[in-house]
Structure formats: C-alpha cells, structure tokens
Amino acid sequence: MIADRLADVRRRVAQAALDAGRDPADVRLLLATKTQPVDLVLEALAADARARAADPTLSAVLVGENRVQELVAKGPSLDGLASLHLIGPLQSNKVNAALRWASCIESVESLDLAERLSARTSSTLDVYLQVNVSGEESKHGVAPSEAVALAGAVAALPHVRVAGLMTVGARSDDAAAVRAGYALLRSLRDEVVAAGTQTATELSMGMSGDLELAVAEGATLVRVGSAVFGARPR
C-alpha cells in the first residue's frame, strides 16, 4: 500500500538524519513519478495529506517528473496539490511547456538553458544546477570543476534563483564511491555559497536505494520513486 511505503520512507529519512546528527525536518521528500499513472500519484498525495494532518511537523512532499511530456500530461490533475519539479533534462524547445507547470527546474546544466528560462518567465524561478559528480558519460550535468563559475553566471540572471545543486549518484554497488560523490556535491555547494551565490543552500541527491548515504552527506531533498510506488510500469 502506498501509504505504508510512504510512511516507511519517511522513517528511513528520519533515522538517517538522526544517525547523522541532523534534524529530520531539514530533509524534504520528492516523489519521483516517472511513468507512474496519475491516480497513483494522487493516492500518494492523499496519503501525505493524511500523514501531515496527524503530524503537523511533517513537510509536504514534492512531485518530480523526468520528462516534460509527463509533466504536461499530469499537471492539470496535480495543479494546486503539490509543488512540481522537473528533475530530468530540459530541451530548449520544451522550455515554455515546462514553465507552465514546474515551480522548479532541477536539471540546469548550462548557462544557455538558464538564459532561456530567465527570458521566458516574468516571476522568479527556482533552479538547481545539475552536477555530474561521478563522471559517467551516461549522466547529465556540468563537470564539478565548472559548477562554481556556472552558479555565479546563472545567479546574475534576472528571473532565476539558484536554490541549490542536484546530482544523480554513481551507478555502483560500492557505497563508499556513491557517498564520495555526494560529499563532493556538498563541498561544491559550500564553494558556491562562499563565492557569493548565497541562495544555493539546497542539495537534491539520493534516491530509493541510497538515500541514507545522501542524507549522511547533507541532502536536503531526496528523490524517491520505487520505494513508494513499487517497480515502474513499462
């Protein structure tokens, strides 16, 4: 049952935070809903609402879509029920569609994309800079060596706010290697803030299988899909 799995993920996050000497309230949960039907997403949001009614200290879950077409398709049903994030790559020809529904773009990996977002929104849009901490060619994101400079350039744009950094952890069974990537993102976040982009405090990292490692290294947002919804539909 989705409500039970959601509660279990919350317990995992809370325990990981306590083990790291952190306040569990400092870690938010994003539901990664790639390929999930909208009725299951609505079921998860209803379960979250019930949990928060019973415990007002809980923060509302966020919803993250990997694909703009799914964001557009589910947006009308989710409008007003949750903050929607785009967590997958964004092509320039889909910027307008993404901005119609997303309150945050977590996958900014170039100044060109940030400039397009800034030019096409009149309000202030939160963005995360995606960093490829593992160096894997299959993953999106700016190289770690370029992250601080990119953050400064994006922060100078008029209609975007660099809220933090995002990464997809290394695809590895070596927990130490995965954790090292998350530690690198935290270090880069600290460099970005020290360099003047003081809004960039968030760290979006960690998924269903490795969220404990991410929380231990300072994640403020973990993206969880299968642990709540089960295996993805094909």
TrEMBL record:
Modification type N6-(pyridoxal phosphate)lysine: residues: 34
CC cofactor: pyridoxal 5'-phosphate
GO molecular function, one term: pyridoxal phosphate binding
Coiled coil stretches, renumbered: none
Domain Alanine racemase N-terminal: 65-233
SUPFAM superfamilies reported in the protein's UniProt record: PLP-binding barrel
Gene3D superfamilies named in the record: Alanine racemase (3.20.20.10)
Keywords: Pyridoxal phosphate
InterPro entries assigned to the protein according to its UniProt record, in alphabetical order: Ala_racemase_N, PLP-binding_barrel, PyrdxlP_homeostasis
Known function: Pyridoxal 5'-phosphate (PLP)-binding protein, which is involved in PLP homeostasis.
Protein name as catalogued: Pyridoxal phosphate homeostasis protein
